[in-house]
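USER: I would love a firmer grasp of how sequence relates to backbone shape in proteins. This is the protein in question:
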Amino acid sequence: MFNSCKVVEDPQSILGINMLFLLICVKAMSRHDIESYIPQWIANWLLISGINKAKIPGADFSGIIYKIGDEVFGLNLSIIGNGCLSQYIKLSENMPNMIHKPTNLSHIEAAAIPLAFLTAYTTLHDWGSFIVDNPKILILGASGDVGHIACQIVRAMNAYIVGICSTQNIEFVQEMSTNEIFLKSNQSIYLTIVGNKTSRNILGGIISYLFASRMILRSLKSIIGLGPRYYYINLSSKKENIDQILYMFNKGIIKPVIDSIFKFSNHVKQAYERLDTSRVKGKVVTDFDK
């Protein structure tokens, strides 16, 4: 997947003459489990459909606006491979998911926040009315990138946290102020907070319906009151949620934990291999200054 990393000699050639875009000199970007979920049939479809240029993964970034100097960070979700694992990325100047980086937030920390935070916050805040009546929250993968941020947000809500993790991550999850911990079985069982997935090799969330008809039946039964209600939720990057990133960080409510940092120059493959171990505590980040 990663044979080489190309060094950009002329950043202006990427930007061209289109003044509606900003060129970001990336200083750090972070990995997310979702990058391991894209099935091969989707990659093949992209090639067949004529979108055959090199694909760039990555959604979270932190960097400096080229020739302007402002430090920014944000979320650049792209299903066609225009991601952030690049020295420079071209983004719309009106991009709502990009905000100025405060000086008390490093590029490494900033790149570790957006996707994990917005996923957890959308679920717990925008759809979290159930917490009032059920103040006990179960977080699967409590030591992971989204899980450890979710634990911190739930802690601020004064709700009871039940975390699920592997044996080697118990101490880390305890540091997230979980009230109770369940251990994953030693057997080969895959747990995730994204959809009803049983493997890292399939997509989670709503698209899971395409592969599991029983999920459709279970959802329909829950709607008419014949079973527990559950939801699939896509993250919301509306302004109010983006603003909460800085508010909660500055208040000390959230702090991203960095599992490991890899060099962009020659350790990109190792970063993805670290993700695939399913033993990550917090975030895996690529540092472009190394």
Observations:
- Residues 187-195 have pLDDT under 50 and may be disordered.
- The longest strand covers residues 21-30.
- Residues 12-112+256-287 form a domain with the Quinone Oxidoreductase; Chain A, domain 1 fold (CATH 3.90.180.10).
